[in-house]
Amino acid sequence: MLSSSDVVKRYAEEFAIVEIDFRFRRGVDTADNRPEIERYNHKQYRPVMVVLDAGGNKVFKQTGGFNNQMEATLLADYITGKHYREKKWKAYLSENFK
User: Fold this and answer.
1) Environment class of residue 78 by beta-carbon count within 10 Å: exposed (0-12), middle (13-18) or buried (19+)?
2) Is the pLDDT of residue 2 over 80?
3) Which residue range(s) make up the domain with 54?
């Protein structure tokens, strides 16, 4: 989801990043763990980004990766500028993507 070095650097500066990779951990995909996996990654191992505010409240969730580096950069701006309080991500993206 975050692969460009500029994007990785920006996100590392602005956010605490936690990566969980369900695909390659042996024994993770068991009957006991299936409800938890489906809760957070119901689309079968597609990248999922969840952004929480300082109080632990979910402010953004995206399933799937970015289409390009500009989209990833705009998402960082959208979150750090707290634009999610005023408008949906797709509206913000269409207004600011150049």
Assistant:
1) buried
2) no
3) 5-96
Backbone angle region of 20, left / alpha / beta, with phi > 0 → left and psi within -120 to 50 → alpha = beta
Q: Which residue has the tokens 């597609």?
A: 46
The residue whose two tokens read 């950069």 is: 73
- The structure's pTM equals 0.69
pLDDT tens for 37-55 read: 666 655 555 677 889 888 9
Residue 74 or 25, more confident: 74
C-beta contacts of 61-70 below 8 A and 24+ residues apart: 62/89, 65/1, 66/1, 66/2, 69/4, 69/6, 69/7, 70/97, 70/98
Element counts in the chain: helices (H) and strands (E): 4, 2
Q: How many domains does the chain have?
A: 1
Residues across the chain: 98
